[in-house]
Structure formats: C-alpha cells, structure tokens
Write a structure and sequence with these properties.
6 copies of one chain form a homohexamer.
Chain A (H helix, E strand, L loop, with lengths): L5 E14 L8 H8 L8 E14 L10 H16 L2 E2 H4 L10 H12 L6 E9 L2 E6 L7
Parallel strand pairs in A: 1-3
Antiparallel strand pairs in A: 1-2, 2-4, 4-5
C-alpha cells in the first residue's frame, strides 16, 4: 500500500463530565483570579465533543483508511468508559494532581490513544459551543 | 394592542452545570437501576441549552413582542447567575431534596420566571444533543 | 382525502439582508433607548432562516402533503427574490413605514404566503443563532 | 401522579436508508413529473433524523416523564433495527405497495410505536437539512 | 498578484445518494465481516456533505480568492449532477469496480475537480454527523 | 515552558453586519458581473462567525494555552465593538477604499489582532452556512 493515496478519517464522540479548575500549586486567590467561575468549589460540567483523526493510505481492497468499528472499540475502551458520566477530578486518578483543563484532557487522551491507534494525527476537544482545543500528535510518536 | 397580531419570541441561553441523579426516597439499588451511570456518586455534567418562549401581541409602535434586552436581564438574574458553572445538587438549595433531572430543572426555572416574564408560554431544556425537554406554562399562571 | 391522516411539512429557506430598527413614530432618544445598537444609522445585517410549515392530509396516491417543488416556487417568487440580498428598509416599500423587526417581517411574509399556500399554518424566522420568532396563521385565513 | 405537572420529553435518533419514490398507481410519466429526481430507478438515500416526543406527568419520585433507557429500547426494537442501513423499498414489506415518502414513513413509525410507548404525542422526521415532517398522534390512540 | 496575501475559501455542497459497500475482490463472509450492516445487499443511503477548499492570493481588485459563482458551476457540472439522487454503485460507472467508501468517493471527486479548479487544496466529505473524511490534493497536481 | 507540549485553542465569536460589494476601481457593469446580487446598491447583511485560533505551549501550572478571558477582551476591543451591528462600508474607515469581501475582512481583522494576540495562527470567517474563509498568519509576524 506504499503508493496508495493518503486520506484522513475523523470520528466524533461525546462524553458528559464535570470538573473543577483548581491548581494545588497556586494559592486560593490566584486560582480564583485565573479560573474565575470555573474554580467554583463544587465544580460544574460539560458535554464534551471529542474528534479523533487518523491518517493513512487508503487500503486498495477495502477502500478504507481504518475500519470505524475498530476505531470506536479503542476509543470506547481507552477513553469513553473512563471519562463519560464522571467527575474528572474525583473519578480519574490522572487528574488528581493535574488540572482538568481541556488542554490537559487532550494530553491525557493522547497518551491513551497514541500507541493503540496507528496513524493517529490529531485530537480535537470541544468544551462548549464557543470554544474547542486541538492537539497534533508529534510525528516521532506516530509509528 | 388588543387587536394586534400575536407572535412568539424564543431566546436561547446556555449554562454549564454538573449534577447527580439520586433520590433519597429510594434505596441505593433502586437509584442505580433507574438512573444508571447518571447515579455516579461524584456526578457528571452538561452544557444545558435553555429556550424561553414568550407570546404576546406585536406592539404596533416598536414592532416587538418583548424587548430582548429586558428578557435577557430577567433570565440572567433569575436563572443563569444561579445555575451557570455550579453543581446543581450542592450549590442550589432547591435541589437538596429534589432530583435535578431536566424535568425538575424545568419546573424550578418555570417557578422563577412565570411571575417575572409576562407572556411566558414555554420552556425548553436540552441536556445533550440527543434529548430535550419541554414544559408549557399552564394558562392560569399566565396573567 | 377527507379521512387521510394529517401531517405537517416544514421547509427551510435562507436569505441575507440588512435592516435598521427605527420608528418614525418615536423621538430619536426613544429609538436609541429601545433598539440600542440595532438603531445604528447605517444599519447592520443578518442571515435570516425562514421555516414555512404546511399542514394537510397525506395524499394516498403520492404519499405527500404538498409537493416541495411547488412550495419552493411559491416561496421563491413571493418572498426570497424580494428579500434576499436587500436592505429591507430601503429596497422594500412595505418597510418604508413599518419597522423591519423579525415580528413585522413575519407578518409581511404571512401576508404574501397565506393566500398562495393552501394549508399554511406557521412561519418561523431565525434572526441569529440566539433567537427566533414564530407566527401561527389564524384559522380563519386558512381556507 | 394525577396532579403532577406534565412535561414533554423528546429523544433524537438517526438511521441511514435508501429509497425510491415511485407509485405503482401512477403511469411512468406521472411518477417522473411528481417525484422528479427522487424517482431515479436505482434510488438514492438519506441520513434520517427521527425525533420521538412523549408527554406525561413528571413522576414525583424519579423526577422523570419516562426513563430514556426504556424509550431507547422500544425505538430500537420497533424501528431502528428494521430501518437503519436498509433500502426502504426492497427491505421492508410495509413499503412494497406504499411509497416511502417521509409522510408515509411517519405513519408507519407511528403504527409501530403508538401502542408500545405510552404518552407518545409527536413524531418528527428530518430527511435533509432543508426539510422535516411531523405527525401528531391522534388523541384517541393515546391511552 | 505575486505578493498578495493568500487565503482559503471553503464552500459546502450536499448530495443525497445510496450505496452498498461490497468488494468483488473479497469472499462474501469477508465482505460481511469488514463492512457489517453497510454490506446489506440492497444498500442504504446518506446525505453527503462535501466541502471544497481553494487556496490562492486575494485579488487586489475584486478582494476575492475565487468567484464562488464559478466554483459552484464547476462542482455542479463535474460532481453534483452525477452524484446527487443516485445509487453510487449502479448509476456511476466509476464505482462498478471500486467500493464506494467515503475515501474512494473523495479520490473520484478529486479526479474530477483537480484539473478544473485552480488552487484546489482539500476536499472533505461528511457521511453522517458522526464522521467525516478529508483528502489533501498532492502539491504536484496543483498547478 | 520550552518543552511543554503545544496545543491550539480556538474561540468562536459572532457579529452581525451589512455590506455592499463594490469596487471603485472597476466600471459599474464589471461590478455587477463580478459581484451579482452582492452589488445591490443599498447592501445586504450577514451573521458573521469568526474563529480565532491561538497556538502555544500548555502552561504546566495553569494547564492553559491562553486564558480565554484575556482572548475575549482583546477580540472584543479590537474587532467586535467596531464590526458588530455596523454597515461595514459606511461605518468603518478601513473599508472606504477596500471592498469588504470576507477575504478582506480577514486581512483587516488579522491586522488588528496579530500584534495583540501572541501565538495567533489562524482566523476563520463564516459568512453564511454555505461558505467560510481562512487566513493563516504568516510565521514571520508571529513572534
């Protein structure tokens, strides 16, 4: 498939979670100044939209970059069952000492998917309808 | 304006909140059976989309059913500042003994808006992109 | 078709127009107080989304309430060619003495469609992603 | 629950299907004239969006009109497994002699859901982003 | 215009088509295993959303990268009239021996547009609301 | 933060404005031929959707690329207060001799933001639901 044309496949997922933005490395007032209402002690929540993008040659026999059934299974096992309907700060060990901002969520998700999804090139996370975040997987990780 | 034609004005708002579905009136297993993953002890969250619908005669001078600036101010004061970026169960007294399902959120919001917004006829609350809930204000309340 | 079940068909259209909210019946300061930035002398604009809803028995032979091709032709001829890519205040005689609020746009559009579209029951006009307006055609007009 | 306030719950589903609009009751030219490109012999297809609306009193204990898990199970069993990823004309016996217009799809879906979903009041079917169809369940069916 | 700043223009199109995923190069069971319900013998369908992206210097006189009217005409003539309201497998010769996956649809569309649209850099095809595919035109083709 | 992973943050804004496409550098007939209905003397309007993308290392303490509160303040001060609810041709000096196409709007917005937003890499402007334009900030500007 060395000469097959390359295409990008992007799949959309959704999970609902709550979080509180608070860094133990900063004093209380600094947390309030930086995170504002996102620092509310009891937290708040979002419907997160996650987009996973895979690049690769189009298999000449199947006409596919990757079987979506396989992609769904990996994302569900590695990410969705752990993130959906949770309190990110309290239910996930990885956010005990890391502030669950969208940027850090992306890094955590990348860590869970980059070795299990060959060809993973980009992750996009939408927190609300007004903003979204992207993380491009560094090339060296992508073998 | 007795004979002015009647129109409906709908305005969309958004708030991000977390909640946990759990009824103290039911045993633990019943809560798990009924609410499933929404019963997760630490809660989860959503971007709620609220639509407020007002009906009334079109003012012949202004050409408006209601000034959106006024509507925004009421919804912000009565609902958004209390609901946005909160944990509904822990931050709002009204959900201490009432399960914060979308249906009960609608009843609570209706109670806060029905006497302050003349002509309020309908509230719609979207919890995720896959479901939404509506509550029509009973006529007798609407004077 | 007297006993055929009734269904509602809704079709979405779009037009881009500019307008200025200003009523000659009110003094300058009143116009500014009521319309705010919508009173800007040179106007501003929107992508309007219009939804036209028709109700009627499902024709047992064609399986349709109304042929969408016919509906499109009427809406185009009566509304879109006159409203799209115009300045509502300056290009349309009907808004010379009537403030082009969404409510008044609905009344004008209803006047143009109610006698040409049998079964027209509702019009919906979205001005921005944050608000929309509806006008239900009075029953007596609908014959 | 006689005095509990009533709310409406709407759930969105999606299925992908192909169809051909062609009525055996009409001559070939009539079919082409009425259905146009939808009469293409080999058919075409859509991503259909189905909205199912249920009305009922809010259960004071659970705070719900109906458990979405139950609703999903019924719609999946009665509709989605039969309609999704099919050719409506060739895979479904019900459309062998009935033209699979959106209006007739709604009647067929209503027949499958009205006796299994208590409180079913409305079905909405979106065929493309430019049109949708609604069918309100007659009151007498809804007991 | 050698020194004019470069911008990207993207235009959205839509077509409704049916298809069946089935490769003659694989045995029946392999087809079922790989394509699942998309292998249904009679096919199924989608509302495809196509995005065509053109890059180029902004013409200092017109202020445009390319006139959208011209772009629309090319896409309509080369793609839409052939793809819209068709059965991709049976109506298009190009998919007689090529499986009409979204990836292969992109390659086919690229072949039809790359020599007629100067500056074509990317094509994006959305099959359902949950996935989309992209193909970047190789530089060497783009002169 | 030299070794911190880099992420992209994109924020969506909206403004409503009117414009007329007309170039003084071209004769009347040329303007009509090129701009068509967009050349209508009194103008028309749009709800513009602007997306501002910032790239940068994720701050290890705050977990953020940039504080959205700061980004909002800059975009509001530099762009939105000047563009929202205006007639671009008549209210903005910068479009007195420059045709306010989306491409030129992007260049103007880039000029206002590139020196005030560190890490600005891309601007996207959607004029209608059917098209959008992008401008990538040249690297040399981005320090």
């Amino acid at each position: 498939m060395a000469n097959s044309p390359v295409a990008h496949l992007t799949r959309r997922y959704e999970f609902s979670a709550s979080h509180r933005l608070h860094s133990n490395a900063m004093p209380e007032e600094e947390n309030q100044r930086i995170y504002g209402k996102c620092n509310n002690p009891y937290g708040h929540g979002h419907n997160y939209h996650l987009e996973v993008t895979v690049a690769g040659p189009i298999d000449p026999t199947t006409g596919m970059v990757m079987n979506i059934v396989d992609l769904d299974a990996i994302v569900r096992t590695e990410v969705l069952v752990h993130f959906d309907h949770t309190n990110l700060n309290l239910d996930l060990a990885c956010f005990r000492d890391t502030v669950p901002t969208s940027e850090n969520l992306l890094l955590e998700i990348a860590g869970r998917l980059r070795h299990t999804i060959p060809g993973l090139v980009k992750l996009k996370l939408q927190e609300t309808g007004k903003n979204f975040f992207e993380y491009r997987i560094p090339m060296s990780d992508n073998k």
